[in-house]
């Protein structure tokens, strides 16, 4: 047996080839629309915005997890569409992808809309609840925020 090769990739929309974008969308739709039984407009137009960053991880070439980083009109970074393939759940893929996303975001404040059962996962990445729980598409969500991170001081 050979060791797995995990890779985290990032791209702007214009840098994605058609096959990769197809595979990323298929994972999002398979989980958010089909598995979670939430018919909603998955293609919301934000994937193609010039500042949107797509991040995904693969093991031996197989897609394991995905998320996107948006820039809201007020300049806040927004993480969304965080998803792990069913076969990858529990393997740390989403956590590694979140860490990579937060490295890209740097010291800017960041927000997200967590599925409520995942609040503790996001809390481990420095997010805190920033508003009341609400239900969207039949699933409880909780708004969360990670404030600007102070720059490291070299001593």
Number of domains: 1
CATH superfamily: Gcn5-related N-acetyltransferase (GNAT)
CATH architecture: 3-Layer(aba) Sandwich
Strand fraction equals 25-35%
Apparent shape: globular
Top-tier CATH class: Alpha Beta
Biggest sheet architecture: 8 strands, mixed
What does this structure look like?
The chain has 155 residues and is an alpha+beta fold. The protein has a single domain (6-146), classed as 3-Layer(aba) Sandwich (Aminopeptidase). It has three helices and eight strands; from the N terminus they run βαβββαβαβββ. The protein has helices at residues 18-35, 93-105, 119-123; strands at residues 6-12, 53-59, 62-71, 77-84, 110-115, 128-129, 134-136, 139-146. Strands 1, 2, 3, 4, 5, 6, 7 and 8 form an eight-stranded mixed sheet that branches. A hairpin with a 2-residue loop joins β7 (134-136) and β8. The model has no long low-confidence stretch (mean pLDDT 91).
Task: Give keywords.
155 residues, single chain, 8 strands, alpha+beta
SSE order and pairing:
Blueprint: E1 6-12, H1 18-35, E2 53-59, E3 62-71, E4 77-84, H2 93-105, E5 110-115, H3 119-123, E6 128-129, E7 134-136, E8 139-146
Parallel strand pairs: 4-5
Antiparallel strand pairs: 1-2, 2-3, 3-4, 5-8, 6-8, 7-8
Short overview:
With 155 residues, the protein is α+β, with helices and mostly antiparallel strands.
């Amino acid at each position: 047996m050979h060791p797995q090769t995990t890779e985290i990739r990032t791209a702007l929309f214009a840098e994605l080839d058609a096959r990769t974008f197809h595979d990323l969308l298929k994972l999002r739709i398979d989980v958010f629309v089909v598995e979670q039984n939430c018919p909603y407009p998955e293609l919301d137009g934000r994937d193609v915005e010039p500042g949107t960053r797509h991040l995904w991880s693969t093991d031996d070439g197989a897609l394991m997890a995905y998320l996107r980083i948006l820039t809201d009109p007020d300049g806040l970074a927004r993480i969304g569409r965080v998803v792990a393939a069913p076969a990858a759940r529990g393997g740390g893929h989403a956590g590694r992808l979140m860490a990579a996303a937060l490295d890209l975001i740097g010291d800017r404040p960041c927000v997200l809309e967590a599925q409520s059962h995942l609040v503790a996962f996001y809390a481990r990445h420095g997010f805190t609840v920033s508003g009341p729980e609400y239900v969207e598409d039949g699933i409880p969500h909780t708004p969360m925020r990670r404030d600007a991170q102070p720059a490291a001081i070299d001593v």
